[in-house]
TrEMBL record:
Pfam families: M20_dimer (PF07687), Peptidase_M20 (PF01546). Residues 239-384 form the Peptidase M20 dimerisation domain. The chain crosses the membrane at residues 6-25. This is M20/M25/M40 family metallo-hydrolase. The lineage of its organism: Bacteria, Bacillati, Bacillota, Clostridia, Eubacteriales. Belongs to the peptidase M20A family.
Length: 487
């Protein structure tokens, strides 16, 4: 009897191993995602042309279009100056495209195409985050070009892509290109502070009945060392972005002198509530963007990871547990995250506060909404008197499919510019202006056309932001090549 049971278990185990191995062996690189061409011509024909282009880039970087959350600090004359610089540097765009202004700083150019088929929108933003000049090696707004590297705030985020779009359109107009469809250039000057420019552009386009076939904004890039077991560069295209929620958890009481505290103080009750919230993380889910990312990149991973990603039906629970333990980016891909960021009580050591609060920043996975997230916090906190004040909120964006012409065009263009990179969808953890465009388009893709090393990714919003000339030239090539697909 026991032997029969053992034999049965052994048989099941053997079958399981065979199935797992069979799936792993079949889980090979997919032709659709392998792009080994890299055959596009360079962006400029001569050194002189290239130097002139770099001078144009420098002129954009030198304008101090800094966004501050405290809007009284914003120097709007810099934004006017940027608009003028753009007009000086790109006369053909200004002569051939209809320009309209929206919201506080939004600029929209319409390059009219041959047909009235669904248009393309190329997005970027020209505001930048403030700098802490003492921590920079070089002046942040001089755009110094040294040893084929340009140093300036905004090189990566994201005057670089704005420059790429403008260079490409200007060059195409010069060559006499007439696109098949309208191509819109949508540039906001308040992305970093979630301003009204991009929403205003969207409501204008909506009123005009415009339904873009492709909206391309900043987002993923060509990166390495981001996926377990993968040592090849991959181009990550954001197909969705997480939602955002800032809440303040508050408990109110009587306060009083600290010499005779009650058995349970306000602050300790609030701390206990936070610990209970911590112990009950949001449920994990493999949303379509993440499942697609795993099944695309997993094929190129080392054997162990291929075994895991080829058999998500079996290993998903293990993976979820592992990511939860690790925290960080992989965990953020599969669940709504909670980051406690602020705490406030009394201003004095010897005074008990009449109110205490903890600030939380949540990033919502599409399976959770603002309402359901607040309900979750309330339930698991176990604190009946907890008040939850919402400071900022938005749900996750919809998901853009990858079996579309829009995806194929972007993906093919990547293959033409960069040799041997794996193109994969991914879920963006940060926010971009593109989320507003989901209202008028099903094909909103988020890809910053540049190769970014781990070190370079760390420079975004940090010190010593800089870009290599080689990288920025590839950005221009990407947009030139992409526009050709619609011409
Ligand atoms: Zn940005």
């Amino acid at each position: 009897m026991i032997i029969n049971v053992l034999l049965a278990i052994l048989l099941v185990l053997i079958v399981l191993i065979v199935v797992l191995l069979f799936n792993t062996i079949r889980f090979k690189p997919d032709k659709r995602t392998s792009q080994p061409t890299g055959q596009v011509e360079s962006a400029y024909k001569s050194e002189a042309e290239k130097d002139a282009a770099m001078a144009r880039f420098q002129s954009l970087l030198r304008v101090k279009t800094v966004s501050y959350n405290d809007q009284s600090l914003i120097d709007y004359s810099a934004f006017d100056a940027f608009e003028n610089t753009l007009a000086e540097q790109y006369p053909l765009i200004h002569a051939n495209c209809e320009k309209t202004k929206h919201g506080t700083t939004g600029l929209l150019f319409r390059w009219k195409g041959k047909s009235d088929k669904a248009p393309v929108v190329l997005m970027s933003h020209y505001d930048v985050v403030p700098v802490n000049q003492e921590l920079w090696t070089k002046p942040a707004f001089d755009a110094i070009l040294e040893d084929d590297v340009i140093w300036a705030r905004g090189t990566l985020d994201t005057k670089g892509t704005l420059f790429g779009v403008c260079e490409a359109v200007e060059a195409h107009i010069k060559e006499g290109t007439l696109p098949d469809v309208d191509i819109y250039l949508s540039f906001s000057g308040d992305e970093e502070i979630s301003g009204d420019s991009a929403p205003s552009i969207v409501s204008y386009l909506k009123k005009e009945g415009v339904k873009p076939a492709l909206v391309l904004d900043e987002g993923g890039a060509i990166v390495e060392e981001v996926f377990p077991g993968l040592d090849k560069p991959c181009a990550l295209i954001g197909v969705a972005e997480k939602g955002y929620l800032d809440v303040s958890l508050k408990l109110k009481g009587h306060g009083g002198h600290a010499s005779a505290p009650p058995a349970k103080t306000l602050v300790s009750r609030l701390a206990a509530a936070l610990l209970r919230i911590d112990k009950h993380p949001f449920k994990s889910h493999f949303t379509p963007a993440v499942t697609e990312m795993f099944t695309t990149l997993g094929r190129y991973s080392s054997f162990t990871y291929r075994l895991i990603f080829a058999n998500l039906w079996c290993f998903a629970p293990v993976l979820k547990l592992l990511f939860k333990k690790q925290g960080g980016e992989m965990n953020a891909l599969i669940r709504t995250t909670i980051a406690p960021t602020k705490m406030e009580g009394s201003k004095a050591f010897n005074v008990m506060p009449p109110a205490a609060s903890i600030g939380l920043n949540l990033r919502l996975l599409g399976t959770d909404t603002v309402e359901s997230a607040i309900a979750h916090l309330k339930t698991v906190s176990g604190e009946a008197e907890l008040e939850i004040e919402v400071m900022e909120k938005r749900n996750a964006s919809p998901y853009s499919r990858t079996d579309t012409e829009a995806w194929q065009n972007v993906s093919d263009t990547i293959g033409e510019v960069w040799k041997d990179v794996i193109v994969s969808p991914y879920l963006m953890l940060a926010a971009s202006d593109s989320r507003h465009f989901c209202e008028i388009s099903e094909n909103v893709l988020r890809f910053s056309a540049m190769t970014l090393s781990k070190e370079e990714r760390g420079l975004i919003h940090g010190n010593d932001e800089r870009i290599t000339v080689k990288t920025i030239l590839e950005t221009v090539s990407f947009y030139k090549s992409l526009i050709r697909k619609f011409s």
